[in-house]
Amino acid sequence: MTDTYLGIIAVAVAAMAVIQVVAIAVAFRASKRAGDALARFENDVRPILTNLKTMSADAAKTAQIASTQAQRAEQLIADLTARVNDTVSAVEASVVNPAREAYAIIQGLLAAFAAFRQGPAPASHRPPSAEEEDALFIG
Q1: Going by fewer Cβ within 10 Å, which terminus of the chain is more open, N or C?
Q2: pLDDT digits (tens, 9 = 90+) for 17-57
């Protein structure tokens, strides 16, 4: 019986060896298929990544251009404001100030004409009385 047990053990060991060889072959094929699938995936994703890199570079360039344009617009507005202020100052200096002076001269002339029309003021200067002088005395 020991020979029978030894035969059964030998057949079982051989069957296990065959199963292990088949399992190794299946695992090798599966790993090869996984490697091929990964290579196909990398080939499919590579153009997408390239497009994403290009799009992000374009977005950064566009943002930089927009920032530059905003700075130019800000400078243009500042220059325009300065020029408007200078123009207002020049108009005020050349028109408003002389107009004020002319208005003051006209008002003076009108006052002079009004004084000539009214004639001399009535003389109501009487000498102060003694009582009024006593009230002003400090002492």
Answers
A1: C
A2: 999 999 999 999 999 999 999 999 999 999 999 999 999 99
Pick left, alpha or beta for residue 97 (phi over 0 → left; psi -120 to 50 → alpha; otherwise beta). alpha
How many contiguous H segments (helices) and E segments (strands) does the chain have?
Answer: 3, 0
Q: CA separation (Å) from 26 to 16, 19, 32, 37, 44?
A: 15, 10, 10, 16, 27
Average pLDDT for residues 99-122, to the nearest whole number?
A: 82
DSSP codes of every residue in 16-52: HHHHHHHHHHHHHHHHHHHHHHHHHHHHHHHHHHHHH
Interval 46-95: pLDDT, tens: 999 999 999 999 999 999 999 999 999 999 999 999 999 999 888 888 88
Write b or e for each residue in 114-139: b if 16 or more Cβ atoms lie within 10 A of its Cβ, otherwise e. eeeeeeeeeeeeeeeeeeeeeeeeee
Q: What is the pTM of this model?
A: 0.43
Q: Which pair of structure tokens corresponds to residue 130?
A: 């003694």
